[in-house]
Structure formats: C-alpha cells, structure tokens
Amino acid sequence: MEFKSVGVVGAGVMGAGVAQSLAQTGHHVVLVDISDDVLAKAKKEVRNGLRAFSLFNKKETIDHKASMERISYTTDYERLADVDFVVENVTEKWPIKQEVYGRIDTICRPDVVFAVNTSAISITKVGGITKRAPQVVGMHFMNPVPMKPMVEVIRGFHTAPETIDTAKRFLAEINKQCVVVEDMPGFVSNRVLMLTINEAAFLVQDKVAAPADVDRIFKTCFEHRMGPLETADLIGLDTILYSIEVLYESYNDSKYRPCPLLKKMVDAGLHGRKSGRGFFSYE
Q1: Catalytic residue (choose from 21, 67, 122, 190)
Q2: Tell me, what's the pLDDT at 120?
Q3: 119 in active site
Q4: How far apart are CA 23 and CA 67, in angstroms?
Q5: Is there a catalytic annotation at residue 152?
Q6: Pick the catalytic residue: 27, 28, 140, 271?
Q7: Which residues face 277 on adjacent strands?
Q8: Is 18 exposed, middle or buried (0-12, 13-18, 19+ CB in 10 A)?
Q9: Candidate list 67, 89, 117, 119, residue with the active-site label
Q10: Which of 92, 152, 173, 230 is an active site residue?
C-alpha cells in the first residue's frame, strides 16, 4: 500500500464518504474539520455507511471495528503534517477553499499531492494559490462515495503527468476507476447535470409538473435510476446552488442562471436529504 495515511479535509457528506472508502480499504485517515459537531456527525455517518455497504455488497467482507479505528477525527490541521495524500472536500465557496489551501500548503510535506474534491471550481485556480500547482489535481467523487465505482479526475493547467499517475494509483487502492478530463468549470459531469437539475427546478417553479412527475418521466422513459430532483436532494440543494452559481460566474452565460425556486429553498433550509426536506420529504 503506497498511501498508508491520508488526510481528508472537510467532514461533510462527501468527506465522510471518502474517509469511509479509505478506512474500509485499509488506509489510516486523518479527518479534519473546524467543527466538533460536524466531526461527530461524520463518525455516525461512517458507521452507518459501513453497515449499508456490507448490506449491498455481500461478497465483500469488511471489518467494521478496524475500519472505524483507522479514522482519527480532529479539528487540528497540524495532524496533516505526516499524511501521504490529501483529499479536500470543503464547501464549494472560493473564500473557504482559499483559506484551507493556504493552511494545508504550509503544513503538509512538499511531495504530497492535493486532490480537490469539487463539482465546479477550477483546479487551475486552486493550484495557483498553492506552492505546488503541479501536484494539485481534481478528484470529483460521486455521492454516496463508497457505493460509486467511478471518479472524474481533472487535469489542471499545471497538473504534472506524474500527479495524474499518482491519482490513478491512489484511486486503485480504494477500488475506484477514473476518467481523466480537462479543466473547465463543471468539467463533464456537472456541466451537464447541473443544467438538468436547474431546469427541472424551473419546471416545478413554473408549475409544469410536480417533482415526483418530473422524476417519473426520467425514470420510466429513460430508465434513469433516479430523477434529477431526487438526485438534487441526494447531493444537497445548497451544493447544487453553489455549483450553478460557479458555472454562471465562470461562463457569463445566462443558461446557467440559478432557478429562483432553488435559491428560495436553500434560503429556507431545505437542503435535501441531509436536512430532512428538499423537493421531497425524508422526515
């Protein structure tokens, strides 16, 4: 195993999922967040996630106790000084990303690769605020991370070929495949997906169809496993809105204008599954 200890920054839904995937494949994880409450919630999510993974993957045996013990939960960024690789998962807001990379760039060893788990923010821009731009790569995990076999890897302008190779070896160690794409806002997956979700929200706002009917068309006509609005609830409506806002600002194209209904729902605290209510209710 090349990456014995991995730093995971940000303990939200994606961070907890990445930490679980690492721990259940034998890696030691330093999971960092600024909030003890978020870390406590992440610990619970990892425990539940391990149970769910075993339930849906009968052929793969996982030692739950050992996996839980491989994750250290901390608010102390200095604990990242000895890790071999970093996956950053903080919220999709540039000022927060900027602050985080300023901190970890000074703490982590110079040889450590930073993987930016983002759905829309430029990898080139992130690399530009570090002293290791050739070692910064995009790594767009899908939710729920332990259940998804594919990761979108993004090559920034300065990302070195060796870093792409390192990213591939890292993903192979946690049993993930990858597709490497170039760095443009939204990459491939979210440049298409966010437009679809945003337009589905407009359909609801314009009273063309109820959320369940919008999703039913996609599931029954196109054989999608989930409709766009159910997918939005799974990802988190706040994350969806931030991503669309990044696309809108990046391309200056009105086709990415955020749906007012989506903004209103986020303002009201309807963030999807994680808050118990979004386009559908989970309470």
Answers
A1: 190
A2: 79
A3: yes
A4: 5
A5: yes
A6: 140
A7: 272, 281
A8: buried
A9: 119
A10: 152
Look up 190 and say whether it is catalytic. yes
Residue 272: DSSP 8-state: B
Contact (CB, 8 A) for 89 and 118: no
| Identity of the amino acid at 48 | N
Separation of alpha carbons 142 and 189, rounded Å = 10
Structure tokens at 24: 């259940």
Asked whether the beta carbons of 27 and 174 are under 8 A apart, the reply is yes
Q: Kindly give the confidence (pLDDT) of every residue in the chain, 283 residues in length, as a single tens digit, with 9 standing for 90 and above.
A: 899 999 999 999 999 999 999 999 999 999 999 999 999 999 999 999 999 999 888 878 889 999 999 999 999 999 999 999 999 999 888 999 999 999 999 999 999 999 999 887 899 999 999 999 999 999 999 989 999 999 999 999 999 999 999 999 999 999 999 999 999 988 999 999 999 999 999 999 999 999 999 999 999 999 999 999 999 999 899 989 998 998 999 899 999 999 999 999 999 999 999 899 999 999 7
Residues 6+ apart with CB under 8 A from 266: 237, 238, 241
What does the pLDDT read at residue 119?
80
Contact of 241 with 263, CB cutoff 8 Å: yes
- Sheet strand arrangement including 28-32: 71-74, 28-32, 5-9, 85-88, 113-116, 136-140, 150-155, 177-182
* Sequence-ordered alpha helix ranges (H) in 152-207: 161-173, 189-205
The reported pLDDT for the residue numbered 88 is 98
Place of tokens 């029954």: 220
Whole-number Å distance between alpha carbons of 22 and 51: 15
> What tokens were used for 70?
């491989």
